[in-house]
User: What shape does this take?
Amino acid sequence: MATLRIGLIGCGFNGRFHSRSIRNLIRAGLVGAEYVAVCDLEKTRAMAFAEAAGVEVVSNDPKEIIDSPKIDVVYICVPTADHKELVLRAAERGKHIFCEKPLATTLADVEDMVAAVESHQVKAGVGLILRHSPIITVLKSLTEDRTLGRLMTIVFRDDQFFPIQGHYDSDWRKDREIVGAGTLLEHSIHDIDVLRWLGGEVVELRASVRNFAGNEGVEDLAIAHLEFESGGQAQLISVWHSVFGRPSTRRLELFFENGLFTVDDDYLGPIQFQTHANNSQTLSGDEVWERYLALVGLDPRDFSETLGYTLEDYFFLTAASASRAPFPDFRVALEAHRVVDAAYRSAATGANAIRLA
Assistant: This one.
């Protein structure tokens, strides 16, 4: 596999996690890569990143990183409105790309980005991190038991404190010109992707949004009712609140004709389930972790349970170095963006139903 030379653009909250992950993976010998450059509009912040990572190239100009012949892979971790320009430039320069979610502020821009990476034949991964969540991966595998019958409904609640303060410290997320919209696009694009993963294609939806914090065009409450091609339905409630002592939390309940599954974590923890005439059972967090490693073919000697973003970066970098298509890729993100776009169109009409297929 090729040794990839990585440049990271954007030294904020997400960039910090990816920077640590890349360093940890290289240090452990789990990816063939060199971390060679960092970039941020605030040069002092980029310099602090570089010092922590032992990186020599520091810049406050993203074009320097993208255009450098010494860089093979570009990590784009800047605010959403700036993604498209950097992705298009990186694709034109033949760089492999990891771009944080959401890909862009509009569906049309996402479509342009997908077309660019495909026409230039570069590997392009996206930060839909829940696709590498151990608990949701194992949940998906458990629900593939055909004796469960048909999926009836999914109830999904996602809440976190408004990420403009605290450890997020992302003040730009209250500015519609930069973020595009609120909790549904910026945060629950993850949830829409998970609902498609668990429930299948969405054919119709109705949605409403509300604004309690008063940031124009940036909703802090979104409620969506989705109907799947299979006949099952789902309800998503996405909330940005001001309960600052509460961690970001997701709760999922899946009802099948012959089963119920419940999780209260989006990374690692127990799965409660009850099927057929059986009593309620619990798969412990340790059992979830062991099953996850077996499902994805990872050696427990190489990976600990406290990986954070490492799984996401591990799978992207190993795919790119082996010239394989990464997963999730821009096409996966595009489908989630189509659903989110339909939800906003529904909300604009007063929660009228929108057909997607």
